[in-house]
Design goal:
By secondary structure, the protein is an alpha+beta fold. About 55% of the residues lie in helices and about 15% in strands. It has 4 helices and 6 strands. Strand 5 (about 95) and strand 6 form a beta hairpin. Helix 1 (about 5-25) runs parallel beside helix 4 and helix 3 runs antiparallel to helix 4. The longest helix has about 40 residues, at about 110-145.
């Protein structure tokens, strides 16, 4: 494994950490509706649990309402029950074969709690990136110890890895700030 491979691998892993963080942020509910909120809900479909997106069409009816249209008529009640019993605190309403899921408005107190959750998730993502930096630096030190790289190359590589780490941490900070603004917007 070369120094370039270590740096490239660390960069890719850090990018995956940020992608995971983005998907976690998408699950944090703001006042606005988006179909990603329902992605983790599982529905009982002929004895097996499947994601809601595999049994229904998810659409946005308006800025505060998600429309869920099951592909089979008999799945309407099952899907509605799964949404109601999820941990999202949503109250779906059925109209024929369309399930309307209105997003309740957030209180000021709840908005503040959600910003704390966002900051906490951001810190977790930063820790993951820093751990990847540490692992990459340890790989570089091992190459130096095994006499496969010089100490000058070690210093240069560690500086480059630090630059990559700083870039990813600033991206996380920007994502956190953006999500906080989105949550606090009334």
């Amino acid at each position: 494994m070369s120094l370039a491979d270590i740096k490239k691998g660390a960069d890719q892993k850090m990018q995956r950490s940020i992608e995971a963080f983005k998907s976690d942020l998408a699950k944090i509910r703001t006042g606005r509706a988006h179909t990603g909120l329902l992605d983790h809900i599982q529905v009982d479909y002929y004895g097996s649990n499947v994601p809601i997106s595999q049994v229904a069409n998810l659409t946005l009816i308006d800025a505060r309402t998600i429309g869920v249209q099951p592909w089979e008529k008999k799945m309407v009640a099952v899907v509605e029950k799964a949404i109601r019993e999820s941990d999202l605190g949503l109250n779906p309403a059925t109209q024929g074969d369309l399930i309307r899921v209105p997003m309740p408005a957030l209180t000021e107190e709840r908005r503040r709690e959600l910003t704390k959750v966002v900051k906490s998730e951001g810190e977790t993502a930063k820790i993951a990136v820093r751990n990847l930096r540490r692992d990459a630096n340890e790989h570089v030190k091992k190459l130096v110890k095994d006499k496969l790289a010089s100490e000058d190359e070690q210093k240069r590589s560690e500086a480059e890895i630090q630059k990559v780490t700083d870039k990813h941490i600033s991206e996380i900070d920007q994502l956190v700030a953006g999500k906080e603004q989105e949550i606090m917007a009334v």
